[in-house]
Amino acid sequence: MDATIEVRGLRKRYGPTVAVDDLSFTVGPGRVTGFVGPNGAGKSTTMRMIMGLDRPDGGTALVGGKPYRSLRTPLCRLGAMLDAAALHPARRARDHLLWLAHAGGIPARRVDTVIELTGLTGAARRRAGGFSLGMRQRLGIAAALLGDPPVLMFDEPVNGLDPEGITWIRGLLRSLAAEGRAVLVSSHLMSELEGGADHLVVIGRGRLIADTGVGELLDAASGGRVELRTARRQEAMTVLAHAGATVTANGRDAVTVAGLGSERIITLLTGAGVAFSGISEHRATLEEAYMELTRDAVEFRAVAGREAP
Ligand SMILES: Nc1ncnc2c1ncn2[C@@H]1O[C@H](COP(=O)(O)OP(=O)(O)OP(=O)(O)O)[C@@H](O)[C@H]1O
């Protein structure tokens, strides 16, 4: 079975609220796809529809080419953690997993494998009710891995975790993708996905804003800008603006230059006798790239809203 999730023209309304609006994207094998959007953007609704927990008003969601509900061994096709709090508090961690394995026709020995994989060995016989958030997330992930599925989906798995927990989850997701699995992981914070995702599906108000590789997005957001350090900031700005660049003061002795390459900047400043102490290509952070993307989406909506009859 292929390791993919394919979402095509998916739509969902709750009364007057359009939660998901003609959404299409593909989650491919061998990479971590970040599913990003602000609170209420429609990420959880989309994931619930992928798992057949919510019925779409239109469109399709396929897991390995088939609707989730038609899968004969669903735990072995798609592993998901949609809500880490969904645990029976009185049940011990290992018993919880044994119960799930039994219900899904998975051999009991797999339970100990996933307990080890998720670092829960020391806590396996403790009751889930006393677990910290980080331990609950680990138990939720252990449950998702029970069927050794080629497709994995996690809703906000690092939400509320400490840096150590975030690093652990990031490493685990990467290793699962390196095994060829398709991994979809949602977050409302782009910073949580920095260094963790290879590909991004960005949504806002239920609509697709971007479906792009992380590298491509950063290249586009970096936009050929150059950072310049000089004690003679005003003179440098005048020379560069005169040559057609867009220049922005950036702190007391720094300037961000757009519209001119670094070689040209060096030639111009040297020619004008303006000394500088450093010059480097600006590299956007994922957070900056995201702000740019969502700002465009907000502006688009504002304009569309004004033009609406
Ligand atoms: N069962 C429901 N009944 C009514 N409205 C709902 C329901 N589930 C979701 N919504 C609404 O649909 C929209 C999308 O919600 P959803 O939970 O899918 O967003 P999200 O991107 O997962 O947000 P968050 O990051 O806060 O989890 C929101 O406006 C939400 O209030």
Q: Which parts are unreliable, with pLDDT below 50 for 5 consecutive residues or more?
A: 303-309
Helix content: 25-40%
Shape: elongated
Report the structural category.
alpha/beta
Ligands in the model, by name, code or SMILES, are: adenosine-5'-triphosphate
Could you name the CATH class of the largest domain?
Answer: Alpha Beta
Task: Please outline the helices and strands.
Elements: E1 5-14, E2 17-27, E3 31-36, H1 43-50, E4 58-63, E5 78-81, H2 93-103, H3 109-117, H4 133-145, E6 151-154, H5 163-178, E7 182-187, E8 199-204, E9 207-213, H6 214-222, E10 226-229, H7 233-242, E11 246-249, E12 254-258, H8 262-272, E13 278-281, H9 286-307
Parallel strand pairs: 3-7, 3-8, 5-6, 6-7
Antiparallel strand pairs: 1-2, 1-4, 8-9, 10-12, 10-13, 11-12
Describe the protein's architecture and organization:
The chain starts with a strand and ends with a helix. It has 2 domains: 5-212, Rossmann fold (3-Layer(aba) Sandwich); 224-281, Alpha-Beta Plaits. It has helices spanning 43-50, 93-103, 109-117, 133-145, 163-178, 214-222, 233-242, 262-272, 286-307, and strands at 5-14, 17-27, 31-36, 58-63, 78-81, 151-154, 182-187, 199-204, 207-213, 226-229, 246-249, 254-258, 278-281. The longest helix is centred in the C-terminal third of the chain and has 22 residues, at 286-307. 35% of the residues lie in helices and 25% in strands. It is elongated. By secondary structure, it is an alpha/beta fold. Residues 303-309 have low confidence and may be disordered. Helix 3 packs across helix 4. Strands 5-6-7-3-8-9 form a 6-stranded mixed β-sheet, with helices on both faces. A hairpin with a 2-residue loop joins strand 1 (5-14) and strand 2 (17-27).
